[in-house]
Specification:
The complex is a heterodimer of chains A (328) and B (636). By secondary structure, chain A is of the alpha/beta class. Chain A has a single domain (19-288), classed as 3-Layer(aba) Sandwich (Rossmann fold). Helices cover 35% and strands 17% of the residues of chain A. Chain A has 13 helices and twelve strands. Chain A has helices at residues 5-8, 34-49, 84-94, 106-112, 114-123, 168-173, 189-201, 223-227, 245-250, 262-270, 289-293, 301-314, 320-327, and strands at 56-60, 75-78, 99-105, 127-133, 136-137, 143-144, 180-185, 206-211, 232-236, 254-256, 275-282, 316-317. Chain A has a nine-stranded mixed sheet with strand order 2-1-3-4-8-7-11-9-10, with helices on both faces. In chain A, a hairpin with a 5-residue loop joins strand 5 (136-137) and strand 6 (143-144). In chain A, helix 2 crosses helix 7 and helix 4 (106-112) crosses helix 5 (114-123). Chain B is of the alpha/beta class and 636 residues long. Chain B folds into four domains: 10-237, 3-Layer(aba) Sandwich (Pyruvate-ferredoxin Oxidoreductase, domain 3), CATH 3.40.920; 248-424, Thiamin diphosphate (ThDP)-binding fold, Pyr/PP domains (Rossmann fold, 3-Layer(aba) Sandwich); 438-506, no CATH class; 513-635, 3-Layer(aba) Sandwich (Rossmann fold), CATH 3.40.50. In chain B, 38% of the residues lie in helices and 19% in strands. In chain B, the strands form five sheets. A seven-stranded mixed sheet of chain B has the order 11-10-12-13-15-14-21, with helices on both faces. Chain B has a six-stranded mixed sheet with strand order 3-4-2-5-6-7, with helices on both faces. Chain B has a five-stranded mixed sheet with strand order 18-20-19-22-23, with helices on both faces. In chain B, helix 20 (597-606) links the parallel strand 22 and strand 23. In chain B, helix 2 runs parallel beside helix 6, helix 9 (252-262) crosses helix 10 (277-286) and helix 11 packs parallel to helix 13 (330-339). Chain B starts with 9 loop residues before the first helix and ends with a helix. The chains are: A alpha/beta (328), B alpha/beta (636). At the A-B interface, strand 1, strand 2, helix 3, helix 5 and helix 12 of A face strand 9, helix 9, helix 11, helix 13 and strand 17 of B. The complex binds thiamine diphosphate, iron/sulfur cluster and magnesium ion. Magnesium ion (MG) is lined by residues 63, 105-107, 134, 136-138, 145 of chain A.
Chain lengths: 328, 636
C-alpha cells in the first residue's frame, strides 16, 4: 500500500493499546444482541493490530447495527440509511492512509443500499465491511428484510413474508472484482475474530456477512443452527481459517476449502443449511480503485498552478504585443 | 471523414464565378447576431464555436449560445432538429445572447423553419440557405424546399440560396461533413474576419487529428471565403478593439471546471446529467494533471455521499449535477448540514419538474436549493451571473464551505453552461487553494462541536488528528457529538447551525445598484439574466426612463442593503426564469397568485410589495422582452 506523506511523519515507536483505548460508552443494544459479539471481536482486532484510534474510521448507515461507531473510541461516521459504503469510499479516496471499516445492516446494505453494495464490490477499495445480518429490520421494530427467510412473520408481513430470501453471499460472489467474501456467526466468537482479522488484512473490499441474532424480534430464528453444530459447515484451509482443537471437536462438519477456488466458493455460498462459516473467497490481485485513481505526485500549490495556467493558455486571447512575445 | 486531399485549389474552383474589378460596399455594424444551424452531426456547432473564437481573438465582444436539439440524433431535416450555434458579435463587450437573429446560415429549410416558428429570427433577416434540396431526387423534398423558400421570401426575409454542397463536392468526397468549414469561410468573408486567425482556429480545433484533416478543413474554409468574396454582393465589418489584457474564452461549464481546479479541491464526485455533464467531461480530461479525481458514482445519491465522506475526511469536495440529480442528493446534503461538513454542490439548472427540458435553461431550483432536504437545513446559496462568475464562484464556494463548515450550493443554469464570453485571464492567487489538512493534536477536553455563542462556528476535528476522536452523526447531537434527544440540546444545535448564516451575512457587502441610485423602478434579478437585464436598463435609461437594476449573487444569506435600495424606488419587480402566475388570468388574484422564487423571498423578508415577471420558455430572456416589461410596469 502506498503511504501518504504525512503518515511517514508519525512516530513509529512501539505502542501498546488496551481494549479500553477502543471502548466508548455503553452499547444500547438489547441483551443478547449479536451486535455485542461483533463489537467485542472488532475491539480486540484493533488492540491486537495496534490500530491508532485517530487513524481509524468506522462508517455506518442507519439501524441498530449502525450504532456501532458510537461504541468505538476511534473516529466514526454514523451516516444515513443505506449510504455507508459511498461515504466510506469518499473517506478512503480522500485519505488512503486511514483504516476504514463499514458496519451495515441487512436492510441498510441489501435493500436501500443495494446499488452501492454492488458497486462497492466493483470499486474494490481497501475497506473492511461487516454486514450485520439479523434477517430483520431491528431499529424500526420488526419489518421483513430482503434476507428474511420466506414465511417470516413481521409487522409488514403478519401472515409471513412472501419472497425467498436474498442470499448476500451469492450476490457478492457474482459481482465482477469481488476480492474477499467470508461468513461468520456471532455465536462462534473465536471464528468470528479470526475472520474479522483475515478481513482486515485483506487488501481490497472485504465483505464479511455475520449472521447476527436479534433476540428482540426473532428470538429463536437461529436456534436450530446454534443447538446443532453439524448444521454449521466449517471452512478450513491453510490459506483460510484454522480451527482450534476445542472448536474442531465441536464443529465436526468441516470442509477443506481453498479460498482461491471461485467455483467451489459459489457452490458453498448457495448452501443455506448447513450454513457455511469461514473464508469463501479471497483474491489479492484485484486492483483497488483508490490505487488506480489517485495521483502519485504530491499536490503542491506550484503543481496546481502549473496545471491551471496550462489550461488557461489553451483558451487565452493575448493582447497584440504579448502575442508577439509569445511567438519569440 | 475522408482524409485524402483532392483536386482543385479553391481559387481555381471559384475563378470562373468571379466578376473582376467589382468592389463591394462594406457596411459597418455595432453588433450582429449570427446563427449557424444544421441537422445534428453536420457540424454547425463547430462552425459557430469557431466563429465565436475568431471574433473574440480579433477583439470583438461575443456571446455564443448553443442550439441543441432535445434528442441526440433527431431525424434528418426535422423542424425540431436544429443544432448549431448563435453568436452575438459586437464592437463592445457583450453580456448576453441579445434579441432576434440578424443573419442565419441554414443547411436545410426544415431546421430553419423550426427557428422561424420559435420566433428566433428577426423579421426580414438575412437567410443563407443550402440550395441542394431544390435539385433533390426526392420530389417531396423538392416541394417542401420550394414551398418554404417561397413562404420565407413572401414573408420578407432576404433569402440567398447557397450551393454549399455543390461547391464542397468539387473539393472533397464527403461534402456533408465538410460544409461547416465552407460556411465558416463564407461568414469570414461576409464579416471581414481575419483569415489568418481563422486558419489558426482550425488548426487548434482539429489539433488532435492528423495534418491532412487540418489541411482539408482549411481548404474548405478558403473555398468558402473565396466563394463569398466572388458571389455575395454585400459585406459587413464589426470594428474590434483588442483588449489590453489577456482574455480567456470558455463556456460556463468549463469555467466551473477551471474553478474547481483553481480552488484546490481534489475530488469531484458526479453522475452524468445534462446540462451539467460537460463540466465533468472537461474536468475528467484535466483534473488528473493536477492530481485530482473525477469519480463517476453509480448514482447521485452515491455521488453526494462520496463527496460528503471525502469532505469529512479533510478535503472539501464538489459534486456537480442538475435538477433531477439535485433532488436525489437531498438526504446527503441534509447529512452534511447536520454534521457541519463543508461541501460544494453545483446545480446547473435545467427545465423542470421531472425530466423536464434537459437542454434548456430555467431558474426553477432556487427554493429547493434554499429549503431543500428536510427539517431546518440552512445552507449557503450563490448564483453566478456571468461566465467569469462561474469560475470565481467555485473558489468562493469552497472557501465559505470550509470557513463555515457549511454546504454551499452554486446555482448555474443551462444558459450559462453552454454560453461563451471572454473575460480577463484570472491571475493565480495562492489563497484560492485549500490549506493542507489539519493533522495536529486536538487540545485535551476540546469538543467536536464547540459552537461559538456569537457566530455558531465550531472547529472541526478531522480523522488523523490525535485526541479528536468522535463519531459524527446525522442524529441530533450535543457539543461532544453524542447523540442527544433532549429538548435543550436539540434547540441549541439548531440555533447554532442557523447562526452561521447570519455570521456569513455580516461579512457581505450591499449589492450595487446598476443605473441610478433612486428612481421609478428597481428590477431585481439573479443568475444568468444579469446581462440582459442591464442591457435593457441601460437602453431605457438612455431614453430617460428612471429604471435601475440590482443583481444578487448571494441568495442565502441575502446581503445587507437590499431593503434600503428598494425603498429608494417607487416600484420593485423581479425578473426571473421560474414560473409566476399571470395576474391577467381570470382566477388569479392577490390571494392565490404564486410569485416567482426571488420575489416571494423578498416579499417575505422585507415586507415590500415586490412584483415579478417571468418567462419559462427554456431560452434566455431577451433584453427586448425586459424593455417591454419595464415600460409596461412603469405605465401601470
Ligand atoms: C431514508 C430512510 N428510510 C427509512 C429509514 C428508517 N429506517 C431506519 S433503520 C431501518 C432498517 C434497519 O434495518 P437493518 O438495516 O437491517 O438494521 P438493523 O436495525 O436490523 O441492525 C429503516 C427502514 C431511515 N432512517 N431513512
Ligand atoms: S432490536 Fe435486535 S438488532 Fe436491535 S439491538 Fe435489539 S436485539 Fe439487537
Ligand atoms: Mg437487520
Amino acid at each position: 500500500m502506498n503511504m501518504a506523506a504525512h503518515e511517514c511523519l508519525l512516530q513509529l515507536h512501539d505502542e501498546h493499546f488496551k481494549l479500553e483505548d477502543y471502548q466508548s460508552g455503553v452499547p444500547r443494544w438489547c441483551t443478547g444482541c449479536g451486535d455485542s459479539a461483533i463489537l467485542a471481536a472488532v475491539q480486540r482486532l484493533c488492540r491486537d493490530e495496534g490500530l491508532r484510534p485517530e487513524k481509524t474510521v468506522f462508517v455506518s448507515g442507519i439501524g441498530c447495527s449502525s450504532r456501532f461507531p458510537h461504541y468505538m473510541k476511534t473516529y466514526g461516521f454514523h451516516g444515513i440509511h443505506g449510504r455507508a459504503l459511498p461515504i466510506a469510499e469518499g473517506v478512503k479516496m480522500a485519505r488512503p492512509d486511514l483504516h476504514v471499516f463499514v458496519n451495515t445492516g441487512d436492510g441498510d446494505c441489501c435493500s436501500i443500499g443495494a446499488a452501492h453494495w454492488i458497486h462497492a464490490i466493483r470499486y474494490n477499495m481497501n475497506i473492511t465491511m461487516f454486514l450485520h445480518d439479523n434477517q430483520i429490520y431491528g431499529l424500526t421494530k420488526k419489518q421483513a428484510s430482503p434476507t428474511s427467510p420466506r414465511g417470516t412473520k413481521s409487522n409488514t408481513t403478519p401472515r409471513g413474508s412472501y419472497l425467498e430470501a436474498l442470499n448476500p453471499l451469492t450476490v457478492t460472489l457474482g459481482v465482477q472484482n469481488v476480492s474477499f467474501v467470508a461468513q461468520a456467526a456471532d455465536w462462534i466468537p473465536e471464528t468470528l475474530f479470526d475472520i474479522v482479522k483475515a478481513a482486515y488484512h485483506h487488501k481490497g473490499l472485504s465483505f464479511v456477512r455475520i449472521i447476527q441474532r436479534c433476540p428482540e424480534w426473532l428470538p429463536d430464528a437461529f436456534d436450530p443452527w446454534m443447538h446443532d453444530p453439524k448444521r454449521v459447515l466449517m471452512l478450513t484451509h491453510e490459506n483460510g481459517i484454522k480451527l482450534s482443537s476445542g472448536l474442531a471437536g465441536v464443529y465436526t462438519n468441516q470442509e477443506q476449502h481453498d479460498p482461491s477456488n471461485m467455483n467451489r466458493a459459489r457452490e458453498i455460498a448457495s448452501c443455506i443449511d448447513p450454513i457455511p462459516v469461514g473464508i469463501l473467497y479471497r483474491n489479492e490481485e484485484v486492483p483497488r480503485y483508490e490505487d488506480l485513481r489517485r495521483s502519485k505526485t504530491l499536490r503542491t500549490t506550484e503543481y496546481i498552478r502549473a496545471g491551471l495556467e496550462s489550461e488557461f493558455d489553451k483558451v487565452t486571447v493575448w493582447p497584440e504585443e504579448s502575442q508577439e512575445q509569445q511567438a519569440a | 471523414m475522408n482524409e485524402t486531399l483532392e483536386l482543385q485549389h479553391p481559387k481555381q474552383a471559384v475563378a470562373r464565378q468571379r466578376s473582376p474589378g467589382r468592389e463591394k460596399p462594406v457596411t459597418t455594424l455595432k453588433e450582429h447576431i449570427i446563427e449557424v444551424i444544421s441537422d445534428s452531426g453536420e457540424g454547425a456547432q463547430r462552425c459557430g464555436q469557431s466563429l465565436g473564437s475568431i471574433a473574440a481573438k480579433m477583439g470583438n465582444g461575443i456571446w455564443t449560445v448553443e442550439i441543441i436539439p432535445a434528442e441526440i440524433r433527431p431525424p434528418a431535416r426535422s423542424v425540431a432538429g436544429a443544432s448549431g450555434n448563435r453568436i452575438r458579435i459586437g464592437s463592445a463587450r457583450i453580456t448576453n445572447g441579445g434579441d432576434e437573429t440578424d443573419l442565419v446560415v441554414a443547411f436545410n429549410e426544415q431546421v430553419l423553419l423550426g427557428r422561424v416558428r420559435d420566433k428566433a429570427l428577426m423579421p426580414g433577416c438575412i437567410i443563407m440557405l443550402e440550395s441542394m434540396w431544390r435539385e433533390s431526387s426526392d420530389a417531396a423534398v423538392v416541394s417542401s424546399y420550394v414551398e418554404t423558400y417561397n413562404m420565407l421570401v413572401a414573408a420578407g426575409y432576404k433569402v440567398y440560396e447557397i450551393p454549399m454542397e455543390k461547391e464542397c463536392r468539387a473539393l472533397v468526397s464527403d461534402a456533408r461533413r465538410g460544409k461547416n468549414m465552407f460556411a465558416l469561410g463564407m461568414i469570414c468573408s461576409l464579416y471581414s474576419l481575419d483569415m489568418k486567425l481563422a486558419r489558426e482556429q482550425i488548426a487548434l480545433t482539429f489539433g488532435k487529428k492528423n495534418q491532412s484533416v487540418i489541411d482539408q478543413n482549411i481548404l474548405l474554409l478558403d473555398a468558402g471565403y473565396a466563394w463569398g468574396e466572388a458571389n455575395l454582393d454585400f459585406k459587413y465589418r464589426i470594428p474590434a478593439v483588442r483588449s489590453k489584457e489577456a482574455q480567456i474564452v470558455v463556456n460556463g461549464n468549463t469555467a466551473i471546471a477551471l474553478g474547481v481546479l483553481a480552488s484546490g479541491m481534489e475530488i469531484c464526485a458526479m453522475y452524468p446529467i445534462t446540462p451539467a455533464t460537460s463540466a465533468s467531461h472537461y474536468l475528467s480530461d484535466v483534473f488528473e494533471k493536477v492530481g485530482g479525481v473525477v469519480h463517476q458514482a453509480e448514482d447521485e445519491i452515491s455521488a453526494c455521499a462520496f463527496a460528503v465522506g471525502a469532505s469529512y475526511a479533510g478535503k472539501c469536495t464538489v459534486t456537480i449535477t442538475s435538477g433531477p440529480g439535485y433532488s436525489l442528493k437531498q438526504e446527503g446534503i441534509g447529512l452534511a448540514v447536520m454534521g457541519e461538513i463543508p461541501l460544494v454542490v453545483v446545480n446547473v439548472q435545467r427545465g423542470g419538474p421531472s425530466t423536464g427540458q434537459p437542454t434548456k435553461a430555467e431558474q426553477g431550483d432556487l427554493l429547493t436549493a434554499m429549503f431543500g432536504s428536510h427539517g431546518d437545513a440552512p445552507k449557503v446559496v450563490i448564483a453566478p451571473s456571468t461566465i467569469e462568475d462561474c469560475f470565481y464562484s467555485i473558489i468562493t464556494a469552497r472557501k465559505i464551505a470550509e470557513t463555515f463548515n457549511m454546504v454551499v450550493v452554486v446555482l448555474s443554469d443551462a444558459g450559462l453552461a453552454t454560453s461563451q464570453q471572454p473575460f480577463p485571464r484570472p491571475k493565480f492567487n495562492e489563497s484560492w487553494i485549500a490549506p493542507p489538512i489539519d493533522q495536529t493534536a486536538v487540545p485535551p477536553g476540546a469538543k467536536a462541536y464547540d459552537w461559538d455563542a456569537t457566530t455558531g462556528l465550531a472547529r472541526r476535528f478531522i480523522p488523523g488528528q490525535p485526541g479528536g476522536m468522535h463519531t459524527l452523526t446525522g442524529l441530533a447531537h450535543d457539543r461532544a457529538s453524542h447523540v442527544a434527544y433532549d429538548a435543550e440540546t436539540n434547540e441549541e444545535a439548531i440555533h447554532y447551525r442557523s447562526l452561521k448564516l447570519a455570521a456569513l451575512q455580516k461579512t457581505l457587502k450591499a449589492p450595487p445598484v446598476f443605473g441610478g441610485d433612486e428612481g421609478d423602478l428597481l428590477v431585481i434579478g439573479w443568475g444568468s439574466t444579469k446581462g440582459a437585464i442591464e442591457e435593457a436598463v441601460e437602453g431605457l435609461r438612455a431614453e430617460g426612463v428612471k429604471a435601475s437594476s440590482m443583481h444578487l449573487r448571494f441568495l442565502q444569506p441575502l446581503p445587507p442593503g437590499i431593503k434600503e435600495a428598494m425603498q429608494r424606488f417607487k416600484k420593485v419587480i423581479t425578473i426571473e426564469s421560474n414560473w409566476c402566475d399571470r395576474p391577467e388570468d381570470e382566477i388569479i388574484d392577490e390571494t392565490n397568485r404564486r410569485y416567482s422564487a426571488l420575489a416571494m423571498l423578498l416579499r417575505a423578508r422585507y415586507l415590500v410589495d415586490v412584483d415579478c415577471w417571468s418567462e419559462v420558455r427554456g431560452e434566455p430572456i431577451k433584453p427586448s422582452s425586459i424593455r417591454r416589461v419595464i415600460t409596461e410596469k412603469l405605465k401601470k
